[in-house]
Write a structure and sequence with these properties.
Elements (H helix, E strand, L loop, with lengths): L23 H9 L5 H5 L5 E3 L15 E14 L5 E8 L9 E6 L15 E7 L4 H4 L3 E4 L2 E4 L11 E3 L8 H14 L8 H6 L5 H9 L7 H5 L4 H27 L10 H9 L6 H14 L6 E6 L5 H14 L3 E5 L3 H15 L6 E4 L5 H13 L4 E4 L13 E6 L7 H18 L4 E6 L5 H7 L4 E5 L9 E7 L3 H13 L3 E5 L6 H17 L7 H20 L5 E4 L5 H12 L5 E4 L12 E6 L7 H8 L9 E7 L5 H12 L3 H23 L13 H17 L1 H12 L3 H4 L2
Parallel strand pairs: 4-6, 9-14, 9-15, 10-12, 10-13, 11-12, 13-14, 16-21, 17-19, 17-20, 18-19, 20-21
Antiparallel strand pairs: 1-8, 2-3, 2-5, 3-4, 5-7
The chain binds adenosine-5'-diphosphate and magnesium ion.
The site of magnesium ion has 4 residues, from helix 11.
Length: 733
Amino acid sequence: MPSRAAKAPAAVEPFKAKVASWSEALAGRLARIGLHDELDCVLHLPMRYEDETRIVSLADARDGETVQIEAVVREHVIQYRPRRQLVVQVDDANARDADDAGLTLRFINFYGSQVKHFEPGSRLRIRGELRGGGFGHVFGREMIHPHYAVVRDDTPLPDRLTPVYPSGVGLGQVVLRRAISKALQSVKLDETVPAPWLARYRLPAIDAAIRLIHNPPPNVSQESLAARSHPAWQRIKFDELLAQQLSLAKAHAARRARTAPVLKTKGTLVARFLEQLPFTLTTAQTRVVREIEADLTRPHPMQRLLQGDVGSGKTVVAAVAALHAIDAGYQAVLMAPTEILAEQHFHKLAEWIAALDVPVAWLTGSLKKKQKAAARDAIESGIARLAIGTHALIQDDVRFERLGLAIVDEQHRFGVGQRLALRFKARDATAKFHREPHQLMMSATPIPRTLAMTYFADLEVSTIDMLPPGRRPIVTKLIEASRRDDVIERVRHALAEGRQVYWVCPLIEDPDAAAAEAGLLLQVKTVGRRPSASRTETLQLQNAIDTRDALALALPEFHVGLVHGRLSGIDKAAVMRDFNDCRVALLVATTVIEVGVDVPNASLMVIEHAERFGLAQLHQLRGRVGRGTADSVCILLFQPPLSLTAKERLKTMRETQDGFEIARKDLELRGPGEFLGHRQSGEALLRFADLQSDQELVDAAREAAVGMLADDPAAVDRHLQRWLRGGEELLKA
Ligand code: ADP
Ligand code: MG
């Protein structure tokens, strides 16, 4: 479960947020696994159970099995060889035959105070894994570190399965169980879902469902609990999905209640633009343009995701949308995640709209102070109708005169924090003339429909499902790293024909950095941007420099350039311009070229250590070639031996070029949490339900959400408070 600990707990239920019976230490340990109050405890569900309801006889148990027996202590001794240990000889109380009764218990770690539990004649209930003594049972059977309790011969057995909870450091099952069981005694969950809906889907009451899952009675099928198909589990998953649907619907309703400028135009500017564009839009582009334009003429802020495979031509759609807003008398902003990409958009759009007389401002973090101030002035005074740049555009000191449309390219590359900042910026703009700008987000990572609908708050989706005409498929080859020299020959050949080539340096796996990754991710989540440099990046850089030097030496007749993340924005842009204008023939690059870079003359790409890259990343990288009309090739150099999933990834890359197919495969290999990444999903990840296997419940929840919103708004609020507990803001990002 993602750390809800990082968030201030919201006191939402009618009982106390601070639990009187918890010590400071216990509260701290519970908080670390996200349990801040009794309701949290009640909703903390077991991941499995142990069966302590039965006692078996040793004679019936197989070696390797985990069993519970009762036995009487014969003797105990503390041995010192091979190391200090407590050895207890016991006799099975249920043995039919004295020969089969003996069992040895071994404790390597034990307290002195424990020893008194093992006085001869003491009766124990013991649970552990049975091991066969070696040498044909010469040494008898034994258990190492079994659980045990001193009992009497009439001590009752539990009649319920014993829950095992997800836990944390320093928090044992016994303590956690006690806290949860106490919480269950003092909390009764009131029903938040109206009875007719429960009847319709044959779901049990929430309070009963929760109690059953914590303490299942003996007659409940263990399989249905393990598979989470038991009606009690169905109810939990339904509630969780319902909360998600309700919050999406509420976000949607809230948006409908806000106003945005109605961007009505005669379409003159867009028509002039399309006329002088060197190509015509594909039917898919025309369709999404229409979808977007329809939204722009409505009085509520558009929130639309434009997805299309790499190279499908999203930029020109963005340009049309921007011109539509500008024609209606408003400003538009286009924001990109990297300077390289922003710069490229700037040049491309400037070229496209040169004849239209639309003043464009350019703003990135690497501009000089004076230039920045000039850009800000142009934006604030309204002289600039279009602003292009990086997230410098959403900094506090940037004010728009009349912002009508905000476009975010490669939106998945922005952190949740930045996406929220953009929303707040949008609200800022509202303050001045009571209108919120429309928003268009673009992404080349196709999001499967079910995910899009459940993970992304209130987002309409437009899809460009075809590539511009004349594109030739990219041939993808897998080549072992040992044949690097052959590949260099191939590169020489392509360069000699006047083609341009990318050589992508591998991701470096730095063990130290990997260890820091957890902390790093947290940072990403809170500030929404990566720390400036890590050791990985430093290694990466060194590797890129070495590669450039080696290739320059091997190919002395060609100009080899180098671009990487640590170059200043100006230097990066200069290299990219050289490549764009063919002054650099071979470009050695780190993954900074992953997104958006568009140089149609480049038709060969080599990716070193391709096995280290994820599928989405490989697909993005490969999308840098195959943009012109020449036959393109992507060579994936790999270093055996390959892991199974690496093999699967490379095979997928060779077999398909379809971004949606690749995304499906990626989802299958990684699961939705990994697939979307923390940055993408915020904290919206489901804890219990699974979008793939619980599709029926997703449909039920969607239906119930509509009904509840119409009939019972108070129940909606109660339900959201219970399940979201203040996480709604992130869901909107
Ligand atoms: P992406 O969707 O990956 O952002 P781009 O917008 O960069 O793709 O477009 C890729 C290339 O295709 C660009 O060079 C662009 O000018 C060109 N392009 C876009 N639409 C068309 C079209 N309808 N016909 C021909 N070329 C197009
Ligand atoms: Mg793009």
